Structures are given as structure tokens and as C-alpha cells.
Amino acid sequence: MRTTSNPAFRNLPTTGGYANFNYGQGQPASPYGEAPAAPPQTSRPMTIDDVVTKTAITLGLAVITGTLTYLVGPTAVALALPAAIIGLVLSLVIIFKKKVSPGLVIAYSAVEGVFLGGISYVFAMWVGNPGIVMQAIAGTIGVFAAMLVVYKTGAIRVTPKLTKWIIGAAAGAAVLMLVNLIAGFFTSGGLGLRDGSALAIGFSLLCIGIAAFSFLLDFDAADQAIKSGVDAKFSWYIAFGLMTTLVWLYLEILRLLSYFQRD
């Protein structure tokens, strides 16, 4: 399986073991000349339906908690930061924990929805246009659907070279965002990557592009996992990974739209 820019996929196994094409080879036969019976299966290989179902559950829960948070009004602002911190902690636990934990993924989705609802309310009030939220959601769905079509049609093939470029670009963008944040503590506007200037607009467009191409790696990782016959429980990792990319894309689109809609 190829590597991906999404750390959520680091725990996906590279092989499955459900096909059992080689089972019985190199093993002693029974006294009657028959191959030994295959061991009982306690689980099953992952399918595309598993991925779609788990992704729908995580995104649906995030939409519900996000909507409820947004509707509480000004209180949503106070909920955004705690939810962001809790979501970060949960994501790190999910990424570095060796065992699949659907409960943690569901909890992360709920908390991330609260964060998105709160930050969406902040942006809506900042620009004085609540419609910016629906515009960002529509843009996110549009980019996701477009990249899915691109992947399925093979218009852009996921190659090792493309994978390296996307991972490098994502890492570079992350470093720039961190440096800009640190610089913001010492100078007004930091490096100017988030102040609404032409440079900030260009940086947001770059991040949107990187997030969009990251979907290709996510889709490919999921496709390879399905073909390898990994355990169905790992579909929770894929759902979590897709959601992290969607969250990043949504935030970047929301920020970009805010640059053009300030009062």
C-alpha cells in the first residue's frame, strides 16, 4: 500500500489474509491426504460498503453536532476552543493507538462537529453574512465530489512520485502555518498568511489545492486496503482519515470566502 499524507492511515495493515489463496501450502496434510481445514473466520474483509457506511456515520454525526452548536448562538464561540483541544487529543490517540476503536472515532466526530459549528459561527458573525457557512459547505462537497470523479475515472493516477509531491506540499504548508502562528505572537499578522492580503489569498488557494489532491491519496489508500482484504473494522480508520481531510478543506474554503466578504 502506498504512503499517504493523512496520518490517520498509518495504522492500516498492508495485507489482509482473508483470501487464503496460499492456505495449506507448506502445511502437513491430514492422514487421509486432505488439506487441513481453514481456520474459522471471526471477522470479514472490508468492502466499499463498509467505508461508505462508516464515513456517513462520522460525517452525519459531525453535521448534527455542528448544526446544534451553531444554533445556540454566541455560546458556540466559547465551545470552539475546548472542542478543538479535545478533538486534537482524540485524533492523536486514534492515530497512535494500535487497536481500532470505533468509540473514539465517533467521539472525535461529535467533538469536531462542535468545533466546526463554533468556528463557523465566528466567521459568519465576523463577515456579517451567515450564508458564508452554506457556501463553504457547498464548496467542500463540490471539491470532494470532483476529486472522487477524477480518481475513479483515472484522470489523475496516484503514482509514487505524485504521492511524494503531495506529502511534501502538505508538510510544507503545515510548517508555514506553524511559523505564521508563532510569528503572530511577536508581530501583527505574523507572516501575512492569514491577514486577508493577496499573499493570504494565494496561501489559502494553495492549501485548498493540497487538501483536494490529498483526497486522491486517501481514496487510493482505501482502495488498496479493500483490495488487500484487510479486516472490516479498519473502515473506521478510513472514515476518520477522510473526515480530517474534509475538515481541513472546509476550514480553508471558509477562510478564503471570508477574505472577500468582510464588512
Automatic annotation (TrEMBL):
PANTHER family in the record: CONSERVED TRANSMEMBRANE PROTEIN-RELATED (PTHR41282:SF1)
Transmembrane segments annotated in the record for this chain: 51-71, 77-96, 103-126, 132-153, 165-186, 198-222, 234-251
Upper classification of the organism: Bacteria, Bacillati, Actinomycetota, Actinomycetes, Pseudonocardiales
Segments forming a coiled coil: none
Protein's name in the database: Uncharacterized membrane protein, YccA/Bax inhibitor family
Alphabetical list of InterPro entries matching this protein: BaxI_1-like
Keywords associated with the record: Membrane, Transmembrane, Transmembrane helix
Organism name: Saccharopolyspora antimicrobica
